[in-house]
Amino acid sequence: MNKTTLVVMAAGMGSRYGGIKQLEHVGPAGEIIMDYSIHDAVRAGFDKVVFIIRKDIEEAFRETIGDSISRFVETEYVFQSLDDLPEGFSVPDGRSKPWGTAQAVLCCKDVVDTPFLVINADDYYGVEGFKVAHEYLANEPAKGAYCMVGFELGNTLSENGTVTRGVCQVSEDGFLTDVVENFGLIRKGDVVINDAENEYALDTPVSMNMWGFTTDIFTELQERFVGFLKESGTELKSEYLLPTEVGKMIVEGKVTVKVLSSSDQWFGVTYREDKPTVVERFEKLKEAGVYTDPIFADLEDRG
After folding, report:
1. What pLDDT does 257 receive?
2. Where do the structural domains in the chain lie, given as residue ranges?
3. Closest by alpha carbon to 212, among 239, 252, 242?
4. Distance between CA 298 and CA 159 in Å, rounded?
5. Residue-level pLDDT at 122
6. What is the pLDDT of residues 218-237, one digit of tens each?
7. CATH 3.90.1440.10: does it fit domain 5-302?
8. Distance between CA 107 and CA 117 in Å, rounded?
9. Contact 228/220 with Cβ under 8 angstroms?
10. How many CB atoms lie within 10 A of CB 19?
11. Distance between CA atoms of 92 and 109, rounded to whole angstroms?
């Protein structure tokens, strides 16, 4: 079986949340959401963790999570920055926003040499997603044979404001045919609407940036980044987004994406007001025996 890598995207400041939400304590013993994701990934069989962060939060990040994680699994860091651009391009005056999730993944090209799973640092995905993703990636997928763990839209919303989700179309045989980033999603009764007033059913499959790739993705993302910068690089808030680029690759027939299902409930801290609910849910998971106290107690023998 293949070795596998977990890539954690943790470079964002979380502007809507109002701080470095990736480092917020939400568990009964002060755990952060990443503690749970990495615990679940290591228990599922992932061999290595790569954190994508900003250089200015490296010290706080290592102290909060990295140093403890390295006792159980190989750990590396890469840094996403605005000026990490292909030759011939420069950061436009006035831009402060990162280039997006596709550029974040591209930052890993020199440290990831196995099939890998990408996740957001501030999302709780549940145990099942890591299990099904590891099983797929560890069984030697062919070049360009990607996967995605899909969630039901209604299970990925915030009670405190709108969210952005990649809305997916899935073929009868379980492959992703398209994914379109939707903004301003919020529940209205028995449906979800976006900022254009389009309606979606609660069980609509969406991407939560839980993607499985083979390493050929790096070549594709590098080439597409050049095209993105030529078209949108002067816009101060344009983003090079992973779901959008994967969707284009599917439409072009370059890759396939198997949609893997997880019955677990997603939750996260999109807004500061989300935190009390997240804290309550982690307490219930501990009481139900899903997690040990402290969180890594059942991984001690890996140290």
Report:
1. 97
2. 5-302
3. 242
4. 33
5. 84
6. 999 999 999 999 999 999 98
7. no
8. 14
9. no
10. 12
11. 25
Length of the chain as a residue count: 303
pTM above 0.85, yes or no: yes
